[in-house]
Amino acid sequence: QVQLVESGGGLVQPGGSLRLSCAASGFIFSSYYMSWVRQAPGKGPEWVSAINTGGGNTRYADSVKGRFTISRDNAKNTLYLQMNSLKPEDTAVYYCNYGSSWGQGTQVTVSS
C-alpha cells in the first residue's frame, strides 16, 4: 500500500532553516508529481509547492517563493522541502501528497 512518511519538522527561531523529508513507498515514486501542503492551526490546507517527475519543473505558493526549495531523489524515493528564512506564519503541519494519498504530517513551529 501507499505510504508517505514525513520527517524533519521541529521548533526553529524566526530566520532559521529546516529540511523536511518524505519517504515514499508502495507506488512508482518517479512516475508522479509530488506536492507539499501545510495546515496551520485553525486554518484550511494551503498548497505550498509541487515538483514534476524528473525534478526539473517546480512551483511555489507566493507565500514561500524565494525561501523554500522543493526537490526529489527518485533513486531514494524521497521528496524534500528546504525551508529557509522561516517566519512565524510558516508554523503548520506539513504534509507530502500525491493524488489522494497523504502522509501523517510533520509539525513545524517557528517561534522565538
Describe the structure.
The protein starts with a strand and ends with a strand. The strands form 2 sheets. Strands 2, 4, 5, 6, 9, 10 and 11 form a 7-stranded mixed beta sheet that branches. A 4-stranded antiparallel beta sheet has the order 1-3-8-7, with no helix packed on it. The protein has strands at 3-7, 10-12, 18-25, 34-39, 45-51, 58-60, 68-73, 78-83, 92-98, 101-102, 106-110. It is built from no helices and 11 strands. The chain is mainly beta and 112 residues long.
Low-pLDDT residue intervals, each spanning 5 or more residues: none
Measured between the Cα atoms of the first and last residue, the distance is 40 Å
Helix content: under 10%
Annotation field: number of helices: 0
Using the CA coordinates, give the radius of gyration. Answer: 13 Å
**Total DSSP E strands:** 11
Helix and strand element order: EEEEEEEEEEE
Q: How would you describe the oligomerization state of the chains in this entry?
A: single chain
The description of the largest β-sheet is: 7 strands, mixed
SSE-based structural type: mainly beta
List keywords for this structure.
4-stranded antiparallel beta sheet, globular, 112 residues, mainly beta, 0% helix
Give the structure's gist in a few sentences.
By secondary structure, the chain is mainly β. It has no helices and 11 strands.
